[in-house]
Amino acid sequence: MTTDVQRAGERYRGGDPEAGIDTRHAFSFGPHYDPGNLRFGALIACNEERLAPGAGFDEHPHRHTEIVTWVVEGELTHRDSAGHETRVGPGDVQHLSAAAGVRHVERNDGPAPLTFLQMWLTPRQPGGTPSYTLVSAAEGPVGYAVPAAGAVLHVRRLGPGERTAVPDAPWVYAHVVRGAVRLAGAELGPGDAARITGAEGLEALATAPAELLLWEMTP
């Protein structure tokens, strides 16, 4: 088993600050090309997006990508070429399967700043028909499966001193949304992530109230 920790401050900073868009990239992305950091398991992007009120991404295309979005604070407006128009809030899980091709718009139409995580995964097979799923926070997702990419997103909310099992899997990507977590001998804070290869018998311990996202991925 190996663990690689990436601190929040080590992420590549992108976006367009003049347009109210501040982005922190965990993987090689856009003009920041890093051949040694292209993917981990099926995961090819974990972008922390901060949008000022009124800011957003105009219509743009995606293909052959499973896009999962987790809102930290604020409200995200989503519109796509398949006719979906939704508002995504904290605790909701949004999944856009781009398949053979889809276009979408993402904006902060609210009065408050918006922060969200957007995670991209590569599907096992390209093509297909685009699809859209929104699981509301009221449904309390414990695990959200993305079968096309062989992945499951686990959401864990922990009180101080609480422990949670880390899935045994070839690849586990752990991202701390808020709080503090001790995992595989490392102390992780907000925005920190751990990439675990060959996870087996691990637990995460919250040392402060914490929200933790765990991607369980198989070949």
From TrEMBL:
Sequence segments annotated as region (Disordered): 1-20
Domain of life according to the entry: Bacteria
Domain Pirin N-terminal: 18-121
Name of the molecule in the record: Pirin family protein
Domain Quercetin 2,3-dioxygenase C-terminal cupin: 158-217
Signal peptide: none
Transmembrane annotation, as ranges: none
Family according to the record: Belongs to the pirin family.
Annotated Pfam families: Pirin (PF02678), Pirin_C_2 (PF17954)
Bias type Basic and acidic residues, positions: 7-20
